[in-house]
Specification:
The chain is α/β, with parallel strands linked by helices and 401 residues long. The protein contains 12 helices and 12 strands. Helix content is 41%, strand content 13%. It is elongated, with a radius of gyration of 25 Å.
Length: 401
């Protein structure tokens, strides 16, 4: 039995996020602006009862959100921004992220609420004036209560409210997720049964840190410190970061050194993610891991405490890193070539879809990140699971039965 402690330290960064050295970063505010215009136009066209005052407020918040992206783009060329810029950005990051999440969720669900809104508007035109609106009969509601609710629960009121359910719910859900859930740092303990694990390795404890995206314009170092304090009390045997740790080159080494401070009996072993490829050239990334004394595995393996730790880099072939699964089999073959028969093997791979290629390779456990726990989920389940497999939780491969 292996115990994996998973630490998620994520102060919610904007959904449309600027990343260090990402190609064509300047288009991010433009794309966001276009999406906001489309969203606002649909709101005005479809939703009944959208007042001019609320319309102006939404426009102002949307414009402020787009403008807030510009410093994140410019500072890469103009140098580090003044302290007051980053401080102001930090305080405004939450509300701007709420707007981005609400906008994107609104666009995704637009086919439903736009059609419902247009239908409601047509029905409202055919209803009698508000003062003669009929009371909607509510089942199991006593007549005195129904009369008290009459000014609110009318057919006209319901037609006004129904189209707002999805875009309004998106705004409420985004506010809850960003302003409350994102500030909660959670330590999860997961027990994993590994067939054939030697008795001397029973209870082996692995800490897993992934996708924290440290940046002055996103997740702050202090959030990481809070999460690492939780891991520090876990009496770990190994600590394994699996990539996307930092989005700002100046803070990369500081991030790694903080992780290194967490006690781990047998050391700290890592693999890279796609965001490391945005930071700088591979040699500078390797030097940062060397300086922090964290072992970086790239298509290679090492034997630690009776376990074979193997790591693969982020397989990509284009200028902008996107997983190229065609390269994964060769990566795995190289990473596992030094393994001896019968050695329990743990694979570190940033992208979870590497899991598709480990069948038959006798890999006991794969640790991955990349998907941010499904990004949006309810009751432990990710909303995007049907269209994006291996997005949240634990999965068992065919070789395990």
């Amino acid at each position: 039995m292996i115990l994996v402690s998973v630490m998620l330290a994520a102060a919610a960064g904007p959904v449309v996020s600027g990343m260090s050295s990402r190609p064509r970063m300047g288009v991010i505010p433009v794309v966001a602006g276009v999406l906001f215009v489309v969203w606002l136009s649909l709101l005005r066209w479809a939703l009944p009862g959208l007042t001019k005052k609320l319309w102006r407020v939404l426009w102002a918040l949307s414009a402020a959100t787009v403008l807030l992206m510009i410093p994140r783009v410019l500072w890469r060329w103009a140098g580090a921004p003044p302290r007051w810029v980053t401080t102001a950005h930090e305080y405004l990051l939450g509300p701007s992220t709420v707007m981005q999440v609400a906008m994107l969720a609104g666009l995704v669900t637009a086919p439903v609420w736009v059609l419902l809104g247009r239908w409601a508007k047509k029905r409202l035109e055919k209803l009698p004036p508000p003062e003669s609106g009929a009371l909607v009969k509510l089942p199991l509601v006593p007549e005195p209560v129904a009369r008290r609710l009459a000014p609110v629960v009318t057919r006209r009121a319901l037609l006004h409210a129904l189209p707002w359910a999805l875009p309004g719910g998106a705004l409420v859900g985004a506010s809850y997720g960003v302003l409350y859930e994102s500030s909660r740092i959670v330590l999860r303990r997961v027990r994993i049964a590994v067939p054939g694990l030697p008795k001397e390795l029973w209870g082996f404890r692995i800490g897993h840190v992934t996708d924290i995206h440290i940046s002055r314009f996103q997740t702050q170092l202090r959030h990481l410190e809070r999460g690492l304090e939780l891991l520090a009390n876990e009496k770990l045997d190994l600590l394994c970061p699996t990539g996307d740790l930092c989005d700002e080159p100046r803070l990369h080494l500081d991030t790694l050194r903080l992780i290194k401070q967490v006690p781990a009996r047998l050391g700290h072993i890592a693999c890279v993610g796609n965001h490391e490829l945005y930071l700088a050239d591979p040699q500078s990334i390797e030097r940062a891991y060397d300086k922090a004394q964290i072992q970086l595995l790239q298509e290679e393996s090492t034997l630690v405490g009776g376990l074979r730790l193997s790591g693969v880099g982020f397989a990509h072939s284009a200028k902008v890193p996107r997983l190229d699964e065609g390269l994964v089999p060769a990566q795995l073959e190289k990473a596992l070539r030094d393994r001896r028969t019968g050695e329990p093997t743990i694979l570190l791979a940033h992208h979870p879809h590497v899991f598709r290629h480990v069948a038959g390779k006798e890999v006991s456990l794969q640790l991955s990140g990349h998907t941010h726990g499904g990004q949006v989920g309810f009751f432990g389940n990710a909303v995007l699971e049907p269209v994006y497999p291996y997005i949240r939780g634990n999965y068992r491969g065919q070789q395990d039965g």
